[in-house]
Amino acid sequence: MKVLVATEKPFAKVAVDGIRKEIEAAGFELALLEKYTDKAQLLDAVKDANAIIIRSDIIDAEVLDAAKELKIVVRAGAGYDNVDLAAATAHNVCVMNTPGQNANAVAELALGMMVYAVRNFYNGTSGTELMGKKLGIHAYGNVGRNVARIAKGFGMEVYAFDAFCPKEVIEKDGVKALDSAEELYKTCQVVSLHIPATAETKNSINYALLKDMPKGAMLVNTARKEVINEAELIKLMEDRADFKYITDIMPAANAEFAEKFAGRYFSTPKKMGAQTAEANINAGIAAAQQIVGFLKDGCEKFRVNK
Ligand code: 3PG
C-alpha cells in the first residue's frame, strides 16, 4: 500500500518523520510531494497512491480521476472544504479529517493576532489591552473552545454563538452563550471567527452583521476567507474608521485592504494558524493512524463523506 503525503505547505520535518514511522510500521510505503507548484505534479503523484494525506490541498474530481488506486484521503486538519466530497463518494473514496488536532495552534494565533492589533502592530505607539474587552466567539467547536480558554486567561469577557452547539455546553465553560450571530456581533467589540466554509456560511459575514459592532470593533479571522463578503467588509471599513480586520487567510482583495486601511488591517502572507510543530505532529500522525486503521481494519471513525 502506498501512502502519499501531498502538502503544498509542508509539515515540520519532525511530523513527517512521525508519519513515516506509523506508515512503515504498518508495512506500507510513504511517498512525499511537498511544496508543489503545479497541479500536474499532484496529478502525477496520485496515480499509484492508495491513500493520501493532505492539508489545504485541493482534491477535486480531476485529481480523483487520476488516482485510480485511491481508497482514502485524510485532511490533516479540521476544514475539508478543499475536498470535493460528492466526487470522492462517486469514486468510492473515503474522506476523513482529524478534528481538534491543530485547534490549540489556531487558537493561540487568534489571541496573538488580537494582541498584535490592539498594540497597534507593535509600532511603538500606545495601544489598548484585551483585559475587560468583550470577545465573541463565532462557532464553538474545537478552536472556539481553545480561544475561550486562553481569552479567559487574558481577563476577557467571553461570549459565544454556535447554531449547532447546545447553550449548556458553552456555558459549562464559563462562556456566555448568545442566541444569534446578530446578538454576538452587537455585544462584542472583538469577534473571532471559527465557522467552516459551507454553502450556508460563504459570504455570510457581511455589512448588516458587522455594522452594529461596538466602537473600536475588531474582526479576527483564522477560519476561511470565503465566509467574508469582502466587498461589504471594504464598504464597512470605509464607513467606520474605528473598524479593524485581522486575518490569517489573505483576502482576494488584499491589495485594496492594505492600501485603504493601513493601520487597521493585517493579513499573514500564508495561512499559518496550524503551522506549529505540535499541530503538524498531532494532525499528521492522527492522519497516518486513521489511514492504517481504515486500510487494515476498515475503521471509518472521522469519515466526513458518509
Ligand atoms: C484547518 O482547517 O485545519 C486549518 O485551517 C489549518 O489548515 P492548514 O493545514 O492548511 O494550515
UniProtKB/TrEMBL annotation:
<dbReference type="Pfam" id="PF02826">
    <property type="entry name" value="2-Hacid_dh_C"/>
</dbReference>
<keyword id="KW-0560">Oxidoreductase</keyword>
<protein>
    <submittedName>
        <fullName>3-phosphoglycerate dehydrogenase</fullName>
    </submittedName>
</protein>
<dbReference type="InterPro" id="IPR006140">
    <property type="entry name" value="D-isomer_DH_NAD-bd"/>
</dbReference>
<feature type="domain" description="D-isomer specific 2-hydroxyacid dehydrogenase NAD-binding">
    <location>
        <begin position="123"/>
        <end position="252"/>
    </location>
</feature>
<dbReference type="GO" id="GO:0051287">
    <property type="term" value="F:NAD binding"/>
</dbReference>
<feature type="domain" description="D-isomer specific 2-hydroxyacid dehydrogenase catalytic">
    <location>
        <begin position="24"/>
        <end position="305"/>
    </location>
</feature>
<dbReference type="InterPro" id="IPR036291">
    <property type="entry name" value="NAD(P)-bd_dom_sf"/>
</dbReference>
<dbReference type="GO" id="GO:0016616">
    <property type="term" value="F:oxidoreductase activity, acting on the CH-OH group of donors, NAD or NADP as acceptor"/>
</dbReference>
<dbReference type="InterPro" id="IPR006139">
    <property type="entry name" value="D-isomer_2_OHA_DH_cat_dom"/>
</dbReference>
<dbReference type="Pfam" id="PF00389">
    <property type="entry name" value="2-Hacid_dh"/>
</dbReference>
<comment type="similarity">
    <text>Belongs to the D-isomer specific 2-hydroxyacid dehydrogenase family.</text>
</comment>
